């Protein structure tokens, strides 16, 4: 079967996801180049991004060992090439490999008093550009505390900025050996326990925009399991008869874990492997077809669902978006919003000007 006609115009200038609007529908996805305040400010100020996604944080943060320290990048110069042997770019392809773990800095740095997102929201009262705060925790109790903290920030800005914060639960980072990503077992109890917490937060405040960052699945039954698992959380409003689901968007996909790249394949690496850790998460052009396949499969399955709430879920397509043509392909596969990380690491925010110019000519 061929790819069906898009349900939207590829160059739609604005996409609404529950209570946020993304305009233009081009964003950075969570990554090491969206960590601290200067990086987030550059993405916020960039006219070619419609939202800013943060790097994934945990409730309390953690201490990184020296071999896993990410060199800070106060400005968007190209990432210091493999200076910490955690990120490397291929020599002859816009492909990256990384063993970066989560942001060691706690959620508090984003949303606490004086937190970077709080500061940036206050600095830009006249824009509706939202932040998508990427979070993760394996323990439901900690996840609940994170949601409470984010809701605290939303409450502070409720009158005019409630629609400027969304939450993306990252259940798909492949780089944490002791904590297998819950989304790789989409019908399992670990993911359900986290979804229970998200659903509670949503039913307490249905204006909360919640999404999930998913891994690149290689088996179609996994995708069916994800849709079935999420679908179990839909509720029909007794008055309107409308079905509602706590999940407003799915970001497809995260990196492809357990990938091995040798030093001579990448820029600036010494030793045997591109990463000191050996294996890591593959991103960029080398995984584009897999990312497109996931976007297409999820879009199709959701569009064909009998549950109108599932048909409303927006797909954010990511994985190998390094050119105008790739943006167009993501839209053709069913993504309403398109995201990029590897190209951001390579070019800085200029990446979005390149991609943003693309949509008209490529569609
Ligand atoms: C260096 C690096 C760090 C990343 N960190 C995160 C992260 O903290 N959370 C997350 O959900 N995804 C993370 N990702 C995955 C990206 O958001 C994205 O899903 C993936 O790289 C595919 O997009 P791309 O091909 O444009 O890079 C990271 C990717 C890279 C390259």
TrEMBL record:
Provide the Dihydroorotate dehydrogenase catalytic domain boundaries.
Answer: 131-353
Entry's Gene3D superfamilies? Aldolase class I (3.20.20.70), Dihydroorotate Dehydrogenase A, chain A, domain 2 (2.30.26.10)
Note the superkingdom of the native organism: Eukaryota
Q: In which pathway does it act?
A: Pyrimidine metabolism; UMP biosynthesis via de novo pathway
Q: Which PROSITE patterns match?
A: DHODEHASE_2 (PS00912)
Q: Under the GO molecular function aspect, what terms does this record hold?
A: dihydroorotate dehydrogenase activity
Tell me the protein's name: Dihydroorotate oxidase
């Amino acid at each position: 079967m061929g790819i069906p006609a898009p349900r939207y115009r590829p160059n739609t200038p604005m996409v609404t996801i529950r209570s946020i609007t993304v305009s233009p529908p081009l964003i950075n996805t969570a990554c090491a180049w969206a960590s601290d305040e200067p990086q987030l400010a550059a993405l916020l100020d960039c006219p070619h991004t419609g939202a800013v996604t943060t790097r994934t944080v945990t409730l309390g943060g953690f201490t990184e060992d020296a071999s896993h320290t990410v060199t800070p990048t106060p400005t968007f110069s190209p990432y210091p090439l493999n200076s910490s042997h955690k990120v490397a770019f291929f020599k002859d392809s816009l492909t990256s490999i990384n063993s970066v773990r989560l942001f060691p800095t706690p959620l508090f740095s984003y949303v606490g008093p004086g937190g970077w997102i709080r500061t940036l929201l206050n600095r830009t009262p006249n824009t509706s550009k939202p932040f998508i705060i990427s979070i993760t925790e394996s323990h439901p109790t900690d996840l609940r505390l994170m949601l409470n903290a984010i809701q605290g920030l939303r409450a502070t800005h409720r009158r005019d900025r409630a629609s400027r914060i969304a939450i993306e639960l990252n259940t798909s980072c492949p780089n944490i050996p002791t904590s297998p990503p819950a989304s790789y077992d989409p019908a399992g109890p670990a993911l359900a326990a986290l979804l229970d917490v998200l659903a509670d937060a949503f039913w307490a405040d249905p204006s909360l925009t919640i999404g999930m960052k998913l891994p690149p699945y290689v088996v179609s039954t996994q995708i069916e399991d994800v849709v079935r698992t999420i679908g179990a959380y839909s509720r029909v409003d007794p008055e309107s008869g409308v079905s509602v689901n706590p999940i407003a968007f799915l970001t497809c996909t995260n990196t492809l874990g357990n990938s091995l790249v040798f030093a001579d394949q990448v820029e600036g690496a010494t030793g045997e492997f591109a990463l000191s850790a050996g294996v890591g998460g593959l991103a960029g052009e080398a995984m584009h077809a897999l990312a497109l396949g996931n976007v297409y499969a999820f879009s199709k399955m959701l569009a064909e669902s009998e549950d109108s709430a599932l048909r409303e879920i927006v797909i954010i397509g990511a994985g190998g978006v390094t050119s105008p043509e790739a943006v167009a392909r993501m839209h053709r596969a069913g993504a309403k919003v398109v995201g990029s990380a590897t190209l951001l690491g390579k070019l800085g925010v200029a990446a979005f000007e390149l991609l943003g110019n693309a949509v008209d000519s490529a569609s």
